[in-house]
Structure formats: structure tokens, C-alpha cells
Amino acid sequence: MSSVALSLDVTVKKGVPIRTCSPLQSFYCSMARSKDTPTSLERNHRRSVKRTSSQNPRKLIGTGILVLILITFSLQLLISLSTGVITSLSLVHAESKGGRGDGIPRKISIGGSGGCMWFGNISGPPTKCIITTHFRPDPEILDLNKHDTIIQAMSFRMGIWEITNYISTALVFLGLIMFLITIRYREIWKITAVIFYFVTFVSWAALIGEIASLIILKKNVIVARPKFHLHPGVVIWLMIISTVLASITGCLVVWFLEDRNTPRQTEETEIGNPAGEGRGARED
């Protein structure tokens, strides 16, 4: 009896060996299959381990992208609030240490939210700052004649190229909100991707506009009187960094969302697939 029971027949069907069992061998077959086939608990554990290992890198990548968006938004916000609100940041500043021959130094700075003027001590706090989109230096504050050409040369009107800086800041903030929402609701990922496409385009447009403004101001100040010396400020470098970050972040966001929403087919190659269990027991 035992010798018969322990000798299990093996047949081959379509090139695949299948263990067959006779009625007398059914008990021993079930014992052998239970040793080779993982239980449902083991299969669930393996699936959970695979799912966790695949999700952890995505969480790290998503967190890194979120940090990049926050840095880009912070830089864009600093640029938008420069000079008028944050007096230590400026797009350009012009200095005249000799003044109009009186030996009193003067300074004019221009940024994203307006301009500031210094009279006397140019290394200390500004004499007056004006928050405006159309900055014009005050000749009374600087003790200049209203017909001095430096007043007109340092007048800064907010054109379409400068407005793009505010639009870029708003788009980065909107993209930040949409990215957080898309993590929960994957269906709107294409809208978020389009927003970051616009962020990249508008950021480059703003940078080109600011460089063009620098060139125009430089030409105007050179021929203006009294003589001032124009210097680029920190804002232009912040704009270059923020534009590059916006481009990199936009590409990463689109790649991350597209990869995250691409359906994947998982193939189970585990021994003892539930779909194949009992097949050998039914074939005699």
C-alpha cells in the first residue's frame, strides 16, 4: 500500500510535467502539493512586499519634485517682491558718488515691485521706496533737477515682458496646488502637466524680458546726465536660476505623472498559482 502510494505518476501535457494522482494516492498528493505550493497568506505577503518596494522610490521621487517646486516658487516670489517690498534685492541699481558736483552720493534701484532711492548714505537704508508698476525717481528726494535726463533714464514702466514675471509666479503656485491634488486624484494629471508646460514657457519669456530691460536701461543711463554708473542686481541671477529650475521641474513633473498613470501588467510566476491548483488532481 505504502509503496504504491509513494510512487506518484508524472505525465506530460503540452511539454509541461503534471503530477497525476489516483484515488488511493490523493492523500499523499495533497501532502506533497502543500509542501511545494505557497499558501494564500504567503502569496499576499509577497504581493505586499513587491507593492511596497515599487511605491517607496515613487514617494521619494515625488517628494523631491515637490521640494523643487517649492524652491522655484520661493525664488519667483522673491523676484516679484524685489526692491519695493524687499529693498535688499534689485534688478539694477545706478550710483553717483560725486552727485552734481556737491560730493553727495545718490543711488537708484529698480526691482519687481517698484524702486528705491538713496541720498547721502547709500550703504544704509533707502531714503524712500515706492511700490508701483511704473517707477519714476523723485527728483526732490535725490536733490536733482526735474529736467535731468537720469530721471527719465531710470524711469521703469511695467511692460508685457515684465508682467510675465508675475504670471510665472502665479502659475508656479497653481502648479504646486495642482500637483498636490493630482497625487490624490490621478484623473487630472494632464491638466497639471499642461500648467507646468506653461510655467516653463512663461519663465523663459520673463527672463528674456528682464534681460531686454537691462540692456535698454544700460543704454539710457550711459548717455544720461548727471553721470550714474549702472550695475546689475541679484534679481537677474535669481531669475536665471529659477528659470532653469522651472524647466527641469516641469520635465520631471510631466514624466512623473505620466509614468505614475501608465497601466502596468503584472505577471505572476509564483509556483502553485491558484488558477492552476487542483488541475493535476482532476486529471487522472
UniProtKB/TrEMBL annotation:
Q: What is the lineage of its organism?
A: Eukaryota, Fungi, Dikarya, Basidiomycota, Agaricomycotina
Q: In its UniProt entry, what is this protein called?
A: Uncharacterized protein
Top-level lineage group: Eukaryota
User: Which keywords does this Swiss-Prot/TrEMBL entry list?
Assistant: Membrane, Transmembrane, Transmembrane helix
Which residues does the annotated region (Disordered) include? 265-284
Which species is this record about?
Answer: Kwoniella pini CBS 10737
Q: Where would you find the membrane-spanning parts of this chain?
A: 60-79, 163-183, 195-216, 236-257
